[in-house]
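Model: You mentioned two targets. I'll fold them one after the other.
Researcher: Yes, keep them separate.
Model: Target one:
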Amino acid sequence: MSNTLGAVQQNLCRSFVLENPSDTRLLISSSLPCKISSYLKNDRAFLHKQRLRFSTRFLDNSLRDWKAKFQQKMRRVAYMVPHAVLATDSFPKLRGKFKLDGNSELQIVLSSKSDSLLQIDFQITNGGESLVLHWGAVRTRNKDWSLPSRRPDRTKVYKNEALRTPFVKSGSSSLIKLEIDDPEVQAIEFLILDEAQNKWFKNDGHNFHIQLSGNSPQILGASIAETINVTIPEDLVEIYAYLRWEKKGRQNYTPEQEKLEFEEARKELQLKLEKGTSLDEIRKRIVKGSIKSQAAKKLEDKQHFTIERVLRKSRDLTQFINKNSFQPEEGKAFDSKRTLTTVELWSKGLEERFDGLIITRKLFKLDDMELMVLVANTEGKMKVFLGTDYEKPLLLHWALSEKAGEWMVPPSNSLPPNAVLLDKACQAPFINFSSADPALQLQQIEINIDAEHFDGMPFVLCSGDHWIKNNDSDFYVEFGGRTTKFLKGVAALHWEGRLDLQDVGDGKGTAKALLDKISQLESEAQKSFMHRFNIASDLLYQARDAGLLGLAGILVWMRFMATRQLVWNKNYNVKPREISKAQDRLTDMLQDIYSGFPSYREILRIIMSTVGRGGEGDVGQRIRDEILVIQRNNDCKGGMMEEWHQKLHNNTSPDDVVICQALIDYVKFNFDVNVYWKTLNENGITKERLLSYDRAIHSEPNFRPEQKEGLLRDLGNYMRTLKAVHSGADLESAIATCLGYKSEGEGFMVGVQINPIKGLASGFPELLEFILAHIEDKTVEPLLEALLEARVELRPLLLNSQERLKDIIFLDIALDSAVRTAIERGYEELNNAEPEKIMYFISLVLENLALSSDNNEDLIYCLKGWNHALELSKRKDNQWALFAKAFLDRTRLALSSKAEYFHQILQPSAEYLGSLLGVNQWAVNIFTEEIIRAGSAAALSTLLNRIDPILRKLAQLGSWQIISPAEVSGYIVTVNELLSVQNKSYDRPTILVAKSVKGEEEIPDGAVAVLTSDMPDVLSHVSVRARNSKVCFATCFDPNILAEFERNVGKLFFLKPTSAEIIYSEITEGELTEASSRDTSDGRTPSLNIVRKSFAGQYAIVAEEFTNEMVGAKSRNISFLKGKVPSWIEIPTSIALPFGVFEKVLSDNINKDVAHNVDALKRKLEDGDFNALGEIRGAVLQLEASSRLITELKEKMKISGMPWPGDEGEHRWERAWMAIKKVWASKWNERAYFSTRKVKLDHDSLCMAVLVQEIINADYAFVIHTTNPSSGDSSEIYAEVVKGLGETLVGAYPGRALSFICNKNDLNSPKVIGFPSKPIGLFIKRSIIFRSDSNGEDLEGYAGAGLYDSVPMDEEEAVVLDYTSDPLIMDGGFRQSILASIARAGGAIEELYGSPQDIEGVVKDGKIFVVQTRPQM
């Protein structure tokens, strides 16, 4: 019968104090003093052993308390455990009570009648009429029930296994008296049976148990109504409080929380005592294994509820920078650098011969040799080619099939030379392939098949007496059969009605040839994971040679597999070791590419995360063997376990990891089948999926209680085996693989030994052990630190090739994933956290993302910025929040850039391959989003959203940045990009809510407001246009406000900007009409007239010749400044190609063909074909320079002291000439053309001069508005500064510049109102820039500046900026000096002109250079 499974014991030998014993006559057992003595002696020994590990703070006090109480026993009466009844015999009567059902209660009284006789009285109140005691005795060294010879009357023997004694009815009670006189009887166990109702009464699902042996008889699990105040030893309270703290996730406690935790622990222990659990049993249960030592260390260190932390090493973050950027391109076919094998050369020749007709290409491994099979479809006929470099003579033993597994004799007209027909097969010899190329020596067979109804060809090979098979299975090549009538690779899906051929895209932006090949092989891959992984291995080098998009194709395919979008197993049985071997081969190849191609590492990591590690031989075989061990050890050979066993034997998969976990959870939660289904469903396994397996699982688990311990042990061991094959990125498995392990646990991992990886840093194993110990902690900060420290320690090994690189990669992937899991668990921890803590979490997650990214320079500099923001916060710097906000904006830009990159790389492949394979459309649509969500980027974005409103509040930024204040009313329209609607005309006043505004767009007609979450510069082109056009333009930082506007699309709103926010409200049509009637303007855009300029006879002029007829305002203003501004303001030397030169060059005879083309394209443009704009620009770039132009330009440049490009060679002049032509061509850029159309400016009258200046290799560039454009405050200068050239400021470069304001009465006191977030700076060597200078700029009421291009002769170098090394950001004194100089320059120039100015300039070595100025619009 059952072992002792009752509730925990109540020790009768513990002493307790009864403060008010007056109601009961208490007697002390004669055995009590010796028991107290024994108790104290035992506890002293225990305390002595624990002295070095446990704090003595409470234990010494406890001992003193106990001794004091015992010394007072003459004054206070010692009382036994709660369940003991008063004793007058050799030991006291024991009483236990149990609730049976409703009002029914069982009471047991145990008493001693003599030294050799014990009496047990059973009394059931309010019970039935037919109650029976089903009982037996437990003897020494025998856990089965024995049947005592001394029995009550009417007792019967039941199946020689138990005794049954009927209760005697007495009033409302039922009674039985048992007498035990056998000294060998250790305990009595029993159940109560109501025979009339066939109902059993148990003790919490187990047998009732009365312990008779030893010094302390006990009635286990009894509960009584009365409770007694019991003193709990303090050491037990402390240990139990520690366990509670661990269970809650090891949160850091305040002293008040710590005190409360102790009290709650004491209450729980007291409750356990009251329910019948003894102190000995409590101690035995909670003080076990490593718990005692862990708790002892905490108590000894006086750190009850704090977590030890990993001391992170101080490192230069720039050493983690990767610059392995890779631009996407169309997939390439071959990498000529790789030497093709003999079989590949033969295959390549056939593929070129049958261009586009090859429908199947399969490569098989024959030990160290290769076998290639190609199938071509030529006019409905199949040509099958087999080629191999196998050196010995070979026979092909083959057949045809209409379905997998079938062998059909081939038609006679399909037989190759020297073939012999057999029963259901054919045998033919390979013949030597003749080639003049000595490298191309192999054997081949060609088979021609006319019949279309065959789907494939099974075959095996024979060499002498040696038969060669494909991993113990037949080789098989699919033809496609009927499917070849359709598009390659789409046929099966079309045939099954799952795909409309019109849905298949053109594969643009993908490695299309590779994806087509994958789709052709998918039906073969569906057979098993072995087939899929082997096919992936066969395609992997082709994917690598196709570039990043090729590997993206493999990733998409593997991800579709991992997310169960593809069939895992179809009519094919395969051994686990074969799957494991195929995985091993694939991951080995991925490891090799990882080592040799650094720019592919990020995408390779993602591929590897979808594939298990695999392994040769025993690792995979253990899956097959160990399920038998579980069944044998735990007597569970039928039902669900047998069904699972059959599945595991025939096609194990990652689902088995989930099934194993579901079984563990089911057992752990007392065999609750709902828990089993919950675990399955949460991990994507439904009942339908279980039934879909080739070896279906129909049954639910059904185990017995006594199997619990063994099942938990063995399933836990088995889980490690499953994860070793299927879960390469599982943290525990990855750590075990790197640190090494061998067979542990009888029957598990037998014969498997993994050695530790060589070269691990000192202390690294201990670091990993810390991680495993704290992986479930609720307080995640120490865990995050440890995870990142481990990743940093691994980095040197990841960067260097070594034998077990893939194990290191899998460990790093697992650590990366653990960071994401931990941070998501830690969100609650941040609910009421200080901003510094949130920033620290941001820095940790950002570091994790950087360590996983190929091109991470921007992320590393963002990380440095956050670290500095934390330092500023700790120093109580008054601008720390403003600084942090800038890096928040930059980090968001980095995340956005990363998301766009992934979308560009992956989404086209997901859409194309998804359409070929019939993947669910929802899975295709969210493919890239889910890839990003699986990494750290999503968690980082969440943290940024959490701290953004906090920083804005602390920095006093509010929810808005007003760029153009204008009070307007309009109908709300949402758009993704302002660029997409810039040429649109709205027929009613419109408030545009745009997600993306880059800075160079035009504002469409009819738009009265543009609201965006994007961050265009205040001085960008679109900002200037908005202010000039009286359009309300603002950035909104609060997503809730933008969401409210988006919910009100189509409704009419009124916007009223203030200095800090926009007040908005919904209005009626009548209010709009009333507002419109107050507007005295007619609403029409005025026409602008400009005078067409003529060629004045000069191709180039110096600054002194700049007049209104020769050049535009830009050139004239720079000439005017020369000699008039203070001497500390530098003005660069300038010359110009005046108005009319372009027209003159176009009319030259050498360019007559270009002129004719331009005229034709202009007529096309007049007819409304706007594609002509790009064609005109292209035509202009074909112009040739006349010799006179070259001569004059060279002369004027040299007179002015500027270097002549041609002196450095003809190619330098060609560069300069191309730059000039690009300036002229910009007259026809889209933005400029539509802008002039909007104001009805005659485009033909627009003339373009070119201002030529030597480029100053600037440290910084700036733009000044001498009247604050946001507020209109004329007493305040507003300026923006960027690092490097000014193109990032005036062009459409993401991020914001450093911005400051300065009161004109105190130009030496600039105030920074925004730190920079632009990630890119542009720098250039000494060069020449050619600036547009048209007669259509700076017109009254029209801001034409910035519409046309300025082009440097040489390309700028884009540099990722590290602001933490920039003195303008880090050195307050330097910053104050530079900004004050810029402000003073603005004040001086405004004073010179007598009107507000828009000024551009640069800073070089602390000197101010002004390169242009114009009236501020």
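Model: Target two:
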Amino acid sequence: MEKLERSLFRLEQGFELQFRLGPTLQGKEVQVYTNYPAKDHKFDRLKFHSLDWVYPNGQEDDCDKYCRLDLIVAGSYQYYFSCGDKEKVSGGYIVVDPVLRVGANNDILPLDCISSQTYLAKCLGPLDKWLDRVRVAKETGYNMIHFTPLQKLGVSSCYSLADQLELNPNFSLEEKHYTWRDVGNLVETVRKDWNMLCITDVVYNQTAADSEWIDLHPECGYNLVNSPYLKPAWLLDRALWHLSCEVADGKYAEQGLPALIQHEQHINALQGILWQQVFSKLRLWEFLQVSVDEAVEQFRQLLQAGSLGVTSRSSTDCRQQLKMVQDPQHRRFGNTVDMESALDTFAPHRSPSDIQECCNCFSRRLEELNSELYKEMNCHAEQATNCIVGNVVYERLAEQGPKLGPVTRKYPLCPRYFTFPFEEMTFEEEMHLMEQKDKACHFLAHDGSVTGNNPLRNLAESGSEVYLRRELVCESDTIKLRYGERPEDCPYLWAHMNKYTEITAKLFCGVRLVNCHSTPVHVAEAMLAAARAIRPDLYVIADLCTGSQLTDNVFVNRLGITSLVRDARSDTGSQEEGGWLSWFGKEPVGAFFQPSLRPLIPAVTHTMFMDGTLNDHSPIQKRSVYDFLPSSALVSMACCATGSTRGYDELLPNQISLVKEDHLYCCWNPEVQKCDQVNLKTGIMAGKMALNKLHQELAAEGFTQVYVEQLDEDVVTVTRHCPSSHQSVLAVLRRAVKNPEGHHHTDNVPPLFIPGQIEEVVLEARTIVRDINSDRRSDININSLPEYTAEIQEHIQLKDSKVVKKAAMVSKHSGVGQEILFKKFKPGCIIIFRVTLESRSREQLGALRRHLIQFSPQYQTGSLAEHSTPAVLTKPLMTIMSRLTLADMNMLLYRCDAEEREDGGGCYDIPSWLSLHYGGLQGLMSVLAEIRPKNELGHSLCDNLRGGDWMMDFISNRLLAKGGAVGEVGHWFQAMFSYLKHMPRYLVPCYFDAIIQGAYTTALEAVFKQMSSFIQNGSSLVKQLALGSVQMYGVGHCLMLPTISPHLKDVPHCLSEITCQDNQCCVSLAAGLPHFCVGVFRSWGRDTFIALRGLMLLTGRHLEARNIILAFAGTLRYGLIPNLLGPDSYLRYNCRDAVWWWMQCIQEFCTLVPDGVSILKCPVSRMFPTNVSDPQPAGAWDQPLYDVIQEVMQRHMQGIHFRENNAGPQLDHNMTDEGFNVEAGVDQSTGFVYGGSRFNCGTWMDKMGESERAHNKGIPATPRDGSAVELVGLCKSTVRWLVKLHNIGHFPHAAVTIRRGGQTYSVSYVEWDHKIQENFEKNFYISHDPHDPEEKHPQLVHKRGIYKDSFGASSPWCDYQLRPNFPIAMVVAPELFTVEKAWESLDVAERKLLGPLGMKTLDPDDMVYCGVYDNNLDNDKFNQAKGFNYHQGPEWLWPMGYFLRAKLYFAKKMGKETYDKTVNLVKNILSHHAVHLERSPWKGLPGLTNENGQHCPFSCKSQASSLAAILEVLYDV
């Protein structure tokens, strides 16, 4: 639940925005609110409404549900979330870009097409001449005109507005008075007839100091009445003014401070005078201090009145406890002390006679406090002194400063911070005015800025000391406006500025926010909302100087700023500007194709990139006249809006003064150039026209990709690339930071290799000196440098170029292209090439895009038909994919390195990086999914693709080697990759990704079509988990399932690569990747059947599930199925639980599969017809499955005792000799299945000690002998089911027969079922009654209200350990449990065992609990060494599935309210699994984690049982 106020989410109109739940919100009551206007409603930024949830699959699934907004209205919109009873948990902003329209037909002007020219309005002269002057913008290719404020100005700057509502009277003539209507007509003429838009500046933070309306409404500024905290700062300001006047009059000359300050001694004298004559006399600290005598007297009176408190405290405590009370009028010694805190701190502790002592103590404390406040004010004074002196040094001594000369009243010692609209008077007389409200209200604070200040902080509000500390860079011609927090705080000002905004919005399509960072955000927010109410598609730009992108984002988000102004000349070198181009370009050349539905990632604000602004010095003042043209070319090649300032293109030698400029702009004359007229021969205007035209074409035609390269110190190339046509426009420019006329520049420019074929030179230009009378100057107009002009050539062939020496086609590893050798490419030159792919590459790429259309329509543009299409590409890929079985899909999509190596190969290894996790497509997709959204083209995978065809050949050859349907997919890849091999290498990564992504999604679609409706209609999480079925089940090369009966139908066959014979090839389960997937460690009996229901039955793979069940049935021996499935001699029958999981799966098969009970009659080919038989071939000894089931039950009731074949260290080098003895049976008194001993471990908790050092070798960590709770549950489930089967005629056996003591006994399944039912809770439940007569070991009980983990263990304390096994019994045999007891025990398990992904395998309160598994650690700790704690704390995932299923089952029994809460809990827990699946490169769930969900490096990265168990939970939900 992030707070995203500083993250920018920017979208264009027409997008659909979806809000989806993150993992921490799933399973909770979440509502999304936004102030984006509902349909047919107007925008109100303070009015929020909720969004409805959309359920795409028709199920209330938190994984996929979303809220949506169709973004069709420009502006900034807020959203937030509520969660449960928390009204506002988190939120952020969405900025929707406006759509700008020009011309009579309202054609759209894309934001990246904008080329704007700024005009200083006062230089335009009367309105009737404006069209003649702004025509310059039209004729030089601009499509936007930006005017500085058109309002009546104050005495100085063009941004200092005297009246925000009145048009500047200078625009009118004596005989003609112009109005805003006339301006509007002109703007509309420009829009319709010239296809140009007009925007203007708005200033909200200040008004001119000579504004008449501020005199009538002084409450609109910060004065000493509404802001009395400014009194000390005002006093200091007046004292400094009087000091300045006295210095000007020579009063301090004898003290070393003359009016003309010339050296350091004068500065030192100034510092002394400031401290001695100003600060010491002002006694400003008194504004902070308390009157000690008055406070002590008040305190004494309270004590005498009987307000006695507690004992007095130490000195330190006193200072902390005393609370100051600020005087609201901010008078000297006006502050007081909160007397309650004083009484609490200083009350007498013996008797009333101690009152005097307490008053003395209180007085001393106040003196200490006043002393601290004195020091605080002195710190302010020291800073003020430094700032005053620093300002004097800059203005009068510094080389780069204005050097104002002597101190005078016009140029005082330091600027005034406040207005003083009265006649001159003495300082003492002024001090009296401070307390006269009718006078003090007119002492208004000037506006200004502070370097490094937090832009979100108002400099004039209480708590800011910048006026007192003299830190303000003051604008003495302005007054800072005081809005307050809402319109009611200053009604006139809000109404006045709102009307100003409305006038502007009616006339102009956009605004530039002047001093945006100094304008209160809530004010600008309200004003822009008013503007957008009139003009919804308002274009808003601003120049932020915050120095922080995150802080910029706050302004952009709240104000809906469309473009931020960036000045190319704020950096000194071309390399920095090139970096800006890369940053503000749309995307890099060769960027990946993004899917239409994708995560919204934080964006960068759209930019207006300027080659010059009004605040800039002319480049001639810092660089040279030859740098104008290449700087403009650099800016024009940016993939964003661009801008310039009138005068830049004309090569003005000096900066236009915003204050003093009184000349007018020249008018346009296309024919003859006079000194008061300009045309394309003026300056670089011809070059700028060509650049502007090119900039707009590139944006309109989709050249969205940018690449910037620094070839040399002053040579830069910028490439704009179109991702659909793959045309490029490449600009080469040579900067002229130093004037080439006086600085030696080498003519040697590095050769340039341009991939592809150069079609033309779009533009070649340079700045030259022409023979013209440069002495011509106009006294009325702004003058340029007439002797310089731009020489340009447009749309020429390479042979006609004046700067290209040679262009030759060459072939390099990166592709075919042209190598350019330059001649006379001097500083100030630019050349721009249009480049296409060479003909063969173009044909191949067009054909490839045509084949990619089947995956996305975005490839339609640029696609080409080909003369001869490979046969395999003439049909859709889905047609080929539909022929693959799910076993084939395992080969296509997955197979880890160990599986690949078993087949003689391996996963693809990327040099200098890593091997892919899978040989199949998922290995690539996991990497591409990480780098695609970020366009991480520098990734090693991309380097490998650009370097050669190795990865492509690996993919196709791997599949071709398999032949059949898989081989046909290999042919498809081979054909598709053949196109890639003939295109420029920089394009290979993005098209490789397009091919892989298209094939992958098609394969997944084909996979799901072969699965059950539960999967097809399921959520994204259901589908991701179901892919575990494909991931884990495959046909092994060296080890397949045991051969099943040849009499069975529908058994898959394939040609053995080893024997070249037609063999059965049934899929087998890899228990976990990458550790348990090959050889004898691939197929585990237990894991196979824990996972089979989820990964086979629920996914609809019924036939394959049948074959697995029957294959394991054929291996039955001693009444058990193998723990490990290997060659005959490696079959290990050392687990007691696998057979019961097998039986449970048969039951599930009969229940879930249509006509599932028919499996009971299927023939089973017994490998070992008897315990002592040699292995038999398939078909030699067949019997129906129901007889095999009966044998299992019979043997367990009879009792199982045997020693493992081949027992000894050659079978298991850790186990002791006794551990090879296997025992299992049924307790006749309880009906519980039991088995094992303290020397072995026959359940899933099967860790055998390995450490000789810790002396745990050969000792089972968790023997769980006796009756393990989950086995009792599984047995009960089977017996109950057999009773039911027999009753309906599907199972011929009603009982088991045993021999004991020479006699034969019969035990019916009904009797067995009843016996387990009667004895279960009696022996497994640990009641709250400490005197429970059924409890045999009360001294071992440490938790009550739970179920034992086992019954009858050789170590009785093990029975009482809290473990996550009892929920398994609850799921398979819920009838064994009393609902209330079950619910309570699940609650204990939730509190003690529940982890983020899995269940703790042991109670953390247990003395042997250890939650971190490290199989490599060998130390002296018995319970930890060599991973002895494998099941003694680490959190396993598959038990989580059973816990949640049990929770759901019994919650339903507890009532609807409990059930609904439980469903939400389950959803919230499963969200963590969804996140892990999404982020895991293995696309799986681990077998276990360390405590609290921490990563366990020794776990399988993807475990079959984990995937299956979580999928089963979703099926139950």
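Researcher: Noted. Anything on target two?
Model: The first strand starts at residue 10 and ends at 11.
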